[in-house]
Every structure is written in C-alpha cells, then in structure tokens.
Specification:
Elements lengths: L12 H4 L2 H12 L4 E7 L3 H10 L5 E8 L5 H8 L6 E7 L2 H12 L2 H9 L2 E5 L5 H20 L9 E6 L4 H11 L4 E8 L4 H8 L1 E3 L20 H8 L4 H12 L2 E3 L2 H10 E5 L2 H15 L5 H17 L5 E3 L9 H5 L10 H12 L5 H6 L8 E4 L3 H9 L2
Parallel strand pairs: 1-2, 1-4, 2-3, 3-11, 5-6, 5-10, 6-9
Antiparallel strand pairs: 7-8
Helix pairs in contact: 7-8, 13-14
Bound molecules: pyridoxal-5'-phosphate.
Pyridoxal-5'-phosphate binds next to helix 8.
C-alpha cells in the first residue's frame, strides 16, 4: 500500500494535506478567526510534509525547527527550499530532543502566549497525536480493502492482516480504528527497527523506555515513547482512565506493566517484531531480487517483520503492507542493497539508484535540485523563543 505519492514522498502527506483545512475550519468556529501559529520540531519527514500542507493556507503561519546535523541531506534540502509566504524553517544547534523541548517550552510560556493573543494569534501544533492527523489515515485502509475486493484477491467480508512500520503508533492505530468501524482485520503486525520498545511491549506487557536509543537507517521510526499507544490501551483496558493514568505516570519514571487481561487483549490483536539495519538492507536486496520491487528502509522493516510472522505462524491471511516512504528519500541507505560505489552527492545517488533498479525518481525529488534555497536561519536552542517573536513579529 504505497502511501507516499504526495508532494513530499512520505505517508505523512496523506494526513498533512487535509489537516490545515480541518484546522482552519475549526478555528473559524471556535477561535474568532484567530491566526494559528504552528510550531513543529522535526527529525525530517514531519517538517516537510507539514510545510507542504500549510503553505499559503490562509489563517495559518508555520515555523519548523530541525536539528542542524540530525536530518538527511535530501530532507534538509526539501525543507530549505520550501515555498509559501507563511512558512519559515530554522536549523538549531542541537539534537531533535533539544528542538522538541524548545518547542514545548514556547507552547507553555505564558508571556509569549499573551503577546500572540494581543495580535489575534495563537499557538498550535501539527504533531502526530493531533486527532486531525489520525482521522484521514483511517480511510486508506478501507480503500485498500476495497481494492483487494475489486481485484478479486479477497471476497467482501474476508479478513486481512495489516503490517505497519511503526514509530509514534499513529498509522497502526488508525488501522485499529478502521477495524472498530467494521473493517475485517485479523491481525495487526507492528514492525519496529532496533528501537524495539513496542516489540517488547506487545510480547511481555511491559513498556520500558530505559534503554539505548539507536540512530538507524529508518530514522522516522527512531522513537522510544510511542505517544499514540496510550489511545490503544484506553480501549483495551476497558476505558479505565484511572488505570491508564497510573501507567502513564509510571512511564515518566521509565516503565509500566499492564495487567494480564490488557496484555492478553493486546496480544490477541497485535504481533510485534523488529529488524536491525543489517537485516533491513538484506530485505531491500532480497525483495528487489525476488520480486523486482524496490522499497525504502522503513517499508523494508515492515516486509522483514512480516516474513518473521509468516515463518512463526504460517498464517496465510492476505496482508496489506503499508509502504511509508519513497526509496529516493533515503538513496544512500537503499544503495547499500546494491553492490556499488556510492557517489557523495545525494542527487547523484538518486540517479545511480534509478539506473540500478530501473525505477523512476519521483518528480518532487528531481525538482529539488534546481529549487533556490530560501532558508538559511540557524539559532541556539535557547534562542528559539526569540526566533519565533521575530518571525511572527509580535
Ligand atoms: C512517520 C513515519 C513512520 C511512523 O509512523 P507512525 O504513525 O509515527 O507510527 C514510518 N515511516 C515513515 C517513512 C514515516 O515518515
């Protein structure tokens, strides 16, 4: 299920193209036509997809902060060449956590909030716990199911499995909501990279974030606290908010263990598995050799975990594998699956990949090469609030 044919070649486009319009429509009803100043901290994909979604949307302004040395060259280029009169990008000296902490500080700074209010503006966020991002994602699981029916791969009413490369648990949670709305899903297969906190949780019932953090070749899944899991647990623990709050409070300290009934309910629906970087590259190589299909690093994690699932269970229910990014966003890592010398420039890498795989570079990636760089702002993490003040001119 290739979900990456939008303007930034990532599945996040599916939701972030719609979210701005849901948001501005709601603002008109609930916030006296205030302008929303949307702040985003990104490790790559979210920032660009949000910029494309919000560019020139009336009633919104957007500032994206990314870690100076924490995004791929192609992702940096995507953000720094962004068009639109209401958007702005800034690299910060620090890592993703510094960017995220800085944004959270600004959101909770009462003085800055008051300054914005004087100018009829308010802060908002476009991160993946926003319900406006989950909602559009439910739809494509139904669409994929009906495609399978139309193609006569399944009959209406037959069960399918769903395989999702997972980070913040948004995409796979959307498929769970689809099931609650009637989609016949047998098993949700949750695929992680070396940051396999979800694999362990699904297998044991214990969520433990006290572990090493790995920077992997599937960076959009490098995450230790999957925020949307809380929503799943709410449903599976019998909507017992007191119990849930207890677990989430315990997580502040590092770990929680759910009760046996909830753990069983999770395991009945979900299978968890993981792939490290070496296995991921092997999967890209094998999938291309066997099926002639070129997948990106995130999708490869899903394919690898699905193969583990098949071997372990023999379950031959037809499966939909969510493909979340174009391989051309990560040409350097994808080329590792081909035995070749790699050029230094990312565009030259993309061209070599196109030649070796006989696939086409997506137009939005090709277009980047000639787009002028519009943003060269940098600032210290401590100065992010001042940067916001200057940019929105309050
Ligand atoms: C964001 C992202 C994911 C993870 O999606 P979640 O909804 O956070 O689980 C997977 N792959 C790619 C390419 C992404 O950009």
């Amino acid at each position: 299920l290739e979900l990456w044919h939008g303007p930034t070649c990532a599945f996040k486009d599916m939701a972030l193209q719609i979210l701005p319009h849901l948001l501005t429509r709601s603002l008109k009803k609930t916030a006296d036509g205030k302008t929303a100043v949307i702040l985003v901290a990104t490790s790559g994909d979210t920032g660009k997809a949000a910029l494309e979604g919000f560019k020139d949307v009336a009633g919104t302004e957007m500032i994206v902060f990314y870690p100076e040395n924490g995004v791929s060259p192609m992702q940096k280029r995507q953000m720094n060449t962004q068009e639109g009169e209401n958007v702005c990008v800034c690299a910060i000296h620090g890592n993703f956590d510094d960017a995220q902490t800085g944004v959270k500080k600004i959101f909770t700074d009462p003085a800055l909030k008051a300054e914005l209010a004087q100018h009829n503006k308010m802060f908002s966020s476009a991160n993946s716990i926003n319900w406006g991002r989950l909602l559009p994602q439910i739809v494509y699981y139904f669409s994929a199911y009906l495609d399978l029916v139309n193609a006569k791969k399944i009959k209406m009413g037959d069960a399918i499995n769903v395989v999702v490369p997972t980070g913040n648990f948004g995409n796979i949670l959307a498929s769970y909501y689809a099931k609650r709305m009637g989609l016949p899903v047998h098993k949700f297969i949750c695929a992680s990279n070396s940051n396999n906190v979800l694999t362990d949780f699904i297998r044991t019932g214990t969520y433990d974030k006290k572990r090493a953090f790995y920077t992997t070749i599937s960076p959009s899944m490098d995450i230790l606290v999957s925020s949307n899991l809380e929503r799943l647990l709410y449903h599976l623990c019998g909507e017992d908010t007191e119990k849930l709050t207890g677990w989430m409070n315990a997580l502040q300290g590092g770990a929680y263990t759910v009760d046996a009934a909830t753990a069983d309910a999770v395991r009945a629906l979900f299978y968890g598995g993981c792939c490290d970087d070496k296995e991921t590259v092997e999967v890209i190589r094998n999938t291309f050799e066997k099926d002639g299909y070129l997948c990106d690093t995130h999708t490869a994690v899903a394919v690898g975990v699905y193969e583990q699932y098949l071997k372990e269970t023999g379950d031959n229910t037809p499966a939909v594998i969510a493909s979340t990014a174009s391989p051309y966003k990560f040409p350097d890592s994808v080329l590792d699956a081909f035995d070749c010398e790699k050029p230094a420039d990312p565009f030259a890498e993309a061209e070599l990949l196109a030649k070796l795989s006989n696939t086409k570079i997506p137009a939005p990636i090709t277009a980047l090469r000639t787009k002028p760089v519009r943003f060269e702002n940098t600032c210290a993490a401590a100065d992010m609030a001042d940067f916001v003040r200057e940019t929105v001119r309050v």
